Input
Amino acid sequence: MLDITTLFVKIDDFYQNFQTSYLQYLRDNHLIQRVRPGKLSMSEIMTIIVLFQSSNFRSFKSFYSYAKKHLCQEFPDLVTYPRFVNLMPRAFIPLFAYLVTNGLGECTGINFIDSTAIRVCRNKRNSRNRVFKGIAKTGKTSMGWFHGFKLHLIINDRGELLAFAITPGNVSDLQPVEMMVEQQNLWGKMFGDKGYISKSLFHKLFQRGMELVTHLRKNMKNQLMLMKDKILLRKRSLIETVNDQLKNVCQIEHSRHRSPTNFFVNLLAALVTYAEKEKKPSLNLDLNGAEETRNSAVKVLC
Output
């Protein structure tokens, strides 16, 4: 579990600066009329949600019972479990803003991209799922069919998150790539699997200073590749390790969700939990290699 004091201080410092503009936005759009302080502050709500994702508990109800019994000093004004579940949707926008502001790493010129399926139920229960009706879609990956969403990630060679996107399960992996690269102003080389092979995507990314490197399909002509790129392409398993940690440690995938909003809240909290980890999967590369990659990309574009 993450250190409670350190995590709360980071979140509270962020929310104190974010609160004024956020509440003004809610008033301007007539989403709230007045602000009444509750027993739990927003910083405490966000901290508890993130702590659950970093704990060994497999259900939030069990973790909340543990918090009420053993974390009374840290959170003296804990409300009842049903009330806290009703408060969780309020943390959606603050968690997203915290992740984008403090949770994303620095681009080093070496990027890895991949998508992973997030199942919301078993395949045989697709037609009976009511929680995500009209939102979750049926898609297919290399592991087979699934019903739910896709989490698209771009990381650097240090294992830090650079960009992310959440789409329905039937959305192609190619669609959110250009948007993620543009929003985070990424550069250098990006290594992906064969699902990202696309001439149009390659040219669009190349114009933005990004070179897409993938394996070739069997029916494609062989092309020359730098030995450094070939070695880094073999290291693409790094992002698969990150996806594995998000699923098995941070619990982004399970079938216990009873609200679409709380599903996205838990997903954002899991990404925050991963971003706050001190030790992440990494390649331990020298930054000089990343600088050379950037310089070579600039020369080609010029």
